Amino acid sequence: MMDWTDRHCRYFHRTLSKNTLLYTEMVTSPALIKGNATHLLEFDKSEHPVALQLGGSDPIELAKAAVIGSKYGYDEINLNVGCPSDRVQSGTFGAVLMKTPEVVAKCCKEMIDAVDTEVTVKCRVGVDQQNPDLTLPKFLEHISNAGVTRVIIHARKAILSGLSPKQNRNVPPLNYELVYKMKELFPDLHLSLNGGVQSIQQAKSHLENGIDGVMIGRAAYQKPGEVLIDVDKYIFNDETSEVTEKDVVKQMIPYIENQYKDGGKVSKITRHMLGLFSGKPGAKGWRKVLSENAHSSGPEIVLKALSEVD
């Protein structure tokens, strides 16, 4: 979700769900420690609960990055061991670390020792020619022995050479049964499932099958109204959370106005809102008005786009 789940996206998603745990886009530990890119950590307090996702492979550097993230007030520090991009591989972090579980365990141990904030891991079932039935349990054993108690598993292999990042999200087959098996083998681990989940109904089905949590990425981004707006009611049993897509737009207006007054571009926020009315009458007009005008307009363009839905 690089360049997608920035602070504007998360603020928007929080208006759709009060309870969902939100994640930052991946921030590399070198960017924080050597590049001093702490502006990437800024977030609005309304985003809580929110997790900082880190990328890296140097235990000491990751521990320092975790300390910085903890001081910023993040509710969780997550180590990404799932991203398959070439750039990430060249930095020796992301999915390539599935090959060296002992390195991941050392990174996690250093981070856990450095902060009180919970440290979690997001991983794949395996990479390249690995046999996940054999290597995934060993991976989970290594990191659980290091003190990790919560893991998010993308239920696909990552093919590090030969497939693009986009293909790695679709081509390797999903293996939900393996994730279920890991829950049976590691009952004390809080295991969340990721990959291919398109709806609340699918998420609920996984939870009913014994999985502890479900992470939804692109589907939640591309059709946020459809995926997120009823999460509080149907997943968290929160009957007090009743909002419509139009309510969400109106709630976003003050935030957009404040960002605009501070010199921000409206399009930096509305680009995350394009799919809000996906599948509903007026969705095309909503997208068209924002796509063609938000980059050079003020906050009023959002209400103009909303009139297309009305």
What key phrases describe this protein's structure?
2 domains; TIM Barrel; 46% helix; 310 residues; alpha/beta; 8 strands
What does this structure look like?
It is a single chain. By secondary structure, the chain is an alpha/beta fold. It folds into 2 domains: 7-234, Alpha-Beta Barrel (TIM Barrel); 245-309, Up-down Bundle (Four Helix Bundle (Hemerythrin (Met), subunit A)), CATH 1.20.120. It is 46% helix and 14% strand. It contains 16 helices and 8 strands. The chain has helices at 7-16, 29-33, 59-72, 86-90, 101-114, 132-145, 165-168, 176-185, 200-208, 218-222, 224-228, 231-234, 245-261, 266-270, 283-293, 300-309, and strands at 22-23, 27-28, 50-55, 76-81, 118-127, 150-158, 190-194, 213-215. Helix 3 (59-72) crosses helix 5 (101-114) and helix 15 (283-293) runs antiparallel to helix 16 (300-309). It is globular. It starts with 6 loop residues before the first helix and ends with a helix.
CATH architecture of the largest domain: Alpha-Beta Barrel
Q: Structural class of the helix and strand makeup?
A: alpha/beta
What is the CATH class name of the largest domain? Alpha Beta
Q: Could you tell me the number of beta strands? A: 8
Order of helices and strands: HEEHEHEHHEHEHHEHEHHHHHHH
Helix content: 40-55%
User: What value does the average pLDDT take?
Assistant: 94
Largest sheet: 8 strands, parallel
Query: CATH homologous superfamily of the largest domain, by name?
Result: Aldolase class I
What would the principal axes of the Cα set say about the shape?
globular
| Number of discrete domains | 2
Helical run tally: 16
Radius of gyration (CA) equals: 20 Å
Give the N-to-C terminal Cα separation. 31 Å
Q: Which consecutive residue ranges, at least 5 long each, have pLDDT under 50?
A: none
CATH topology of the largest domain: TIM Barrel
Provide the β-strand percentage band.
Answer: 5-15%
